[in-house]
Amino acid sequence: MFLDSISWNEQGLIPVIVQEEGTGIVLMFxxxxxxxxxxxxxxxxxxxxxxxxQKLWFKGEESGHVQKVQDIRLDCDNDVLLLIxxxxxxxxxxxGRYHCFFQKLEHDQWVAVDPVxxxxxxxxxx
Amino acid sequence: MFLDSISWNEQGLIPVIVQEEGTGIVLMFxxxxxxxxxxxxxxxxxxxxxxxxQKLWFKGEESGHVQKVQDIRLDCDNDVLLLIxxxxxxxxxxxGRYHCFFQKLEHDQWVAVDPVxxxxxxxxxx
Lengths: 126, 126
Description:
homodimer; mainly beta
């Protein structure tokens, strides 16, 4: 059983890197527990575990920015997942950006280099 | 100061996604502490924190598979890094593979789908 091969951490979680199919852009980073991964595989849509809210996070449930799963990879130590997804709506980040990694180190500072594509208020208050 | 902007976890660490420049391939996943990130920025070569060995890990020190850092990104929550690197030797994984994410979920099983390019014995016993 694929769930049993995974080295879950002390909290029963595994880190998940989310990459966009085609572009190869790293969209975001999240965590899954056993149930989240099981649901992700069954639905072919990303379901994460929200550590801050301590509950399942059905990505895109509110925003519509669902991630359709194309491929799931596990690393050499069985303790990190790589999810290859199709990102609906072209926005993965809760700030309204394409991806979460929009802060670039320039000299001694983090500079936001990618634009906000949609006002988060419009994403979450529909 | 860029180190102070980071939300280090309870262990003083931050997760790091390592992506190859050009190909966009996600090579590996690791952790950094404050000193590791400082050294990475100064040397423009990846230095991680090994949680298993509890010491700094100068990537490529033994294998020669050094990662030259082209770009460093921070996510929206200031708690995940994305490193864009040039991978010397074309092997990022300690198993002798191009990248660490070589296990693919097929039906109900993880299947190793990427080849070993070099025997790990030859990588680490030079």
